Amino acid sequence: MDGELKETALWFGGLGFGPDGPRRRATVLHERAGLLAREGAVAHLDEETGLGPAPVAPARRYLYDPDPAVVRSHLVAEAAARVDGALLDERIAYFTSDRPERSPLWRVLEVLEFAPFSLKRVRSSVRAHKAGTVTIKKRGSAVDTEKLRRDLRASGPESVTVVLTRIGEKPFYLLCRETEAG
């Protein structure tokens, strides 16, 4: 719930197949203000037959961080298709789009900067955005997040999210902020 993967279920036989073959589904329970039974609190994402792999493209205006249920069920391409999105890298479960769309299936961040990773560059970006609160997220990155947090020496009134990832074999970072759609 809310970013935690609580259970994975595998169904076999007649329960595991749709009319067109094997089916996968991600179900996300989203809790806001302690109430689960609100409209939009449960979201499903189903496998789409014939969809194929998601396109790959450089970062666009918004970065999508899919819920662990979407990642675990291998439905990132389906999630990206819902927002006309593309993966940053075919092996990493972040996708990007020019439009924000709210859903319990993902978190949306507005991309402020996208560049090859270097501590000096990230520190400069954090300072330029007057960030004192820095959330660090990573997929496909070997960077030690606690060491990076200390090395950034962030001080300021604003909040940002630094996303560490790789494209091919090269490390990149995205400096982002929360959106109304996230």
Folded structure, characterized:
The chain has helices spanning 68-72, 76-82, 119-128, 145-152, and strands at 17-18, 21-22, 25-29, 42-46, 62-66, 86-87, 95-97, 106-116, 131-138, 158-167, 170-178. With 182 residues, it is of the alpha+beta class. It has two domains: 13-108, no CATH class; 110-178, no CATH class. Strand 10 and strand 11 form a beta hairpin.
Determine the strand fraction and express it as a percent band: 25-35%
Helical content stands at 10-25%
Helix count, per DSSP? 4
Number of strands: 11
**What Rg do the Cα atoms give?**
18 Å
End-to-end separation: 16 Å
The number of domains is: 2
Strand order within the widest sheet? 6-7-5-8-11-10-9
The average pLDDT score comes to 85
- Structural class of the secondary structure composition? alpha+beta
Global shape: elongated
The biggest beta sheet reads:
7 strands, mixed
| Assembly form of the protein | single chain
| Order of helix and strand elements from N to C terminus | EEEEEHHEEEHEHEE
- Low-confidence spans: pLDDT under 50, at least 5 residues? 33-38
List its traits:
elongated; 182 residues; alpha+beta; single chain; two-stranded antiparallel ribbon; 2 domains; 4 helices
Short description:
By secondary structure, the chain is an alpha+beta fold.
Map the helices and strands.
Elements: E1 17-18, E2 21-22, E3 25-29, E4 42-46, E5 62-66, H1 68-72, H2 76-82, E6 86-87, E7 95-97, E8 106-116, H3 119-128, E9 131-138, H4 145-152, E10 158-167, E11 170-178
Parallel strand pairs: 9-10
Antiparallel strand pairs: 1-2, 3-4, 5-7, 5-8, 6-7, 8-11, 10-11
